[in-house]
Specification:
single chain, Preprotein translocase SecY subunit, 60% helix, mainly alpha, 7 strands, 491 residues, two-stranded antiparallel sheet
């Protein structure tokens, strides 16, 4: 019933028409560059009525990178509404609260309309939360409504550009915006933090100057390490032999990558965790009998967050804090860090700053090493859940893969030509690889975040996966350009 209503709703939502004919790789590149130029224009344009300020809190920096946003700009909300609407609808569809057959074009179109509507609603709510909780510094209360409307407009433009990228570009808008934001952060972090910190260590002229200068490059080293590990994982795969039933002697292989669902589980899992840190801000200020319960869920405190000495509400305790990547950076204190890796690891091992307010009164201080464990476990579990949901929602389950192989005339040598037999063979690999791959990306993302890699370790992991997917798509597009007949077959 809900999906049927979308036929009417779709008439009132902004939509991008699909191209009349398949686009060449050159045309897709032109569209991609054009959309990226608009994105960076919005990225560097602050909303009227907002006080531009340098973000120094690690959690704020991570939110900006993962959501491809910039606090205070027109795209403060970023891609959060798109990702969050996808998460919610996946959970509803996975639990059969919304019944949808993604193989039916009509139902798929309705589901996409519902997702767009949900993204727009979430964008409006988040814009209100950002301004009403002073997450975005408004110069005057009289500008609050104006700023909200600008943030909503920016979010709508991002939603439209994401759809436009999907239909006209070489990848999705989410992938493009995340990769662009992370690349920008890596360059800015290296030039603005690592190099100045290394130069300052050498200029100190002490016996430890050289070693301190090398340690300054630690975040860049861990960024490169995560990059290399990710590439190795993407190249790891299991290959099943295939035979073409209509032509004897013609065979091939079905690759099942170790990262079968790519980095999509960690995108969804990290986005959910970070979205909670924003959405739960409305709990701040609740008093009375529900005050302790609100603080037990999420405790916010005023913390200095800008170069000018201003303050903003920051997540400092509660259950939401324990599952969030709220860790300091191992930089010099001049750049919002704790003073280097020695101080950073000492902080994680000995500090008890995470406050957990008890519902019945009082509070306990939770050691940061417990925060590390809880954050890592929750992230891994969420990655596994979203990984399993994703293969079902995108037609990559053993049943769907077996059906696709049968329709194309492929079979596994030594087995009867029956989709159920092929499905049973794939069931020995795909579910296990999905779980192992999801656990791997969860652990690697947690490790990358905890080492303070420049550009955020999470962002680097996502960027590597995105670059790998774009590379595969470019290879496919190159083949389509060389053999135009394949376009007709694919469509």
């Amino acid at each position: 019933m809900v999906l049927e209503i979308m036929d009417t709703v779709s008439k009132f939502l902004p939509s991008i028409r699909s191209p009349a004919k398949p686009l060449s790789l050159r045309e897709k590149m032109v569209w991609t560059v054009s959309i990226l130029a608009v994105y960076f224009l919005l990225y560097n344009t602050y909303a009227i009525g907002v006080s531009p300020a340098q973000i120094t809190q690690p959690l704020e920096q991570l939110i900006s990178i993962i959501f491809a946003a910039r606090i205070g700009s027109l795209i403060t909300v970023g891609i959060s509404p798109i990702v969050l609407s996808s998460i919610v609808l996946q959970l509803l569809a996975g639990s059969d609260l919304i019944k949808v057959d993604m193989n039916d074009p009509a139902q798929k179109a309705r589901f996409q309309t519902l997702q767009k509507l949900a993204a727009i609603v979430i964008a409006v709510i988040e814009a209100v939360i950002y301004v009403s909780t002073q997450y975005v510094a408004v110069t005057s209360p009289s500008y609050a409504i104006v700023v909200m409307l600008q943030l909503i407009a920016g979010a709508l433009i991002i939603i439209i550009m994401d759809e436009m990228m999907t239909k006209y570009g070489i990848t999705s808008g989410i992938n493009l915006f995340i990769a662009s934001g992370v690349s920008y952060a890596i360059v800015a972090g290296t030039a603005g933090i690592i190099l100045p910190e290394a130069a300052a260590a050498i200029a100190a002229g002490t016996t430890a100057s050289f070693s301190n200068a090398l340690l300054a490059f630690g975040p860049l080293f861990f960024a490169v390490l995560v990059f290399l590990i990710s590439i190795y994982a993407y190249e790891t795969k299991v290959e099943l032999p295939l035979a073409f039933e209509q032509l004897r002697g013609i065979g091939g292989r079905l690759p099942i990558p170790f990262l079968y669902v790519s980095v999509l589980p960690v995108i969804l899992a990290s986005s959910l965790e970070l979205s909670l840190t924003v959405w739960l801000r409305f709990l701040n200020g609740i008093s009375g009998s529900f005050g302790n319960i609100a603080k037990f869920i999420a405790l916010y405190s005023p913390v200095s967050s800008t170069a000018g000495g201003g303050t903003s509400l920051q997540l400092t305790g509660g259950l939401a804090y324990l599952i969030s990547p709220s860790f300091p950076l191992p930089y010099s204190s001049n750049y919002g860090g704790v003073g280097g890796y020695a101080a950073y690891f000492n902080y994680l091992l000995t500090t008890n700053t995470a406050k957990l307010v008890l519902p019945w009164g009082g509070f306990v201080l939770v050691p940061e090493w417990i925060h590390v464990i809880i954050y890592t476990l929750v992230l891994v579990v969420l990655c596994v859940i979203f990984g399993k949901f994703w293969i079902e929602m995108t037609g990559q389950s053993p049943k769907n893969m077996a059906q696709q192989l049968a329709e194309m005339g492929w079979q596994i040598p030594g087995f009867r030509r029956d989709p159920r037999i092929v499905e049973s063979v794939l069931n020995k690999y795909i579910p296990t690889i999905t779980v192992l791959g999801s656990i791997f990306v969860g652990l690697l993302a947690a490790l990358a975040t905890l080492t303070g890699a420049v550009g955020s370790g999470m962002g680097i992991l996502l960027t590597v996966g995105i670059i790998y997917m774009v590379y595969q798509q470019l290879e496919q597009e190159r083949i389509y350009d060389a053999y135009p007949i394949l376009n007709k077959i694919a469509k």
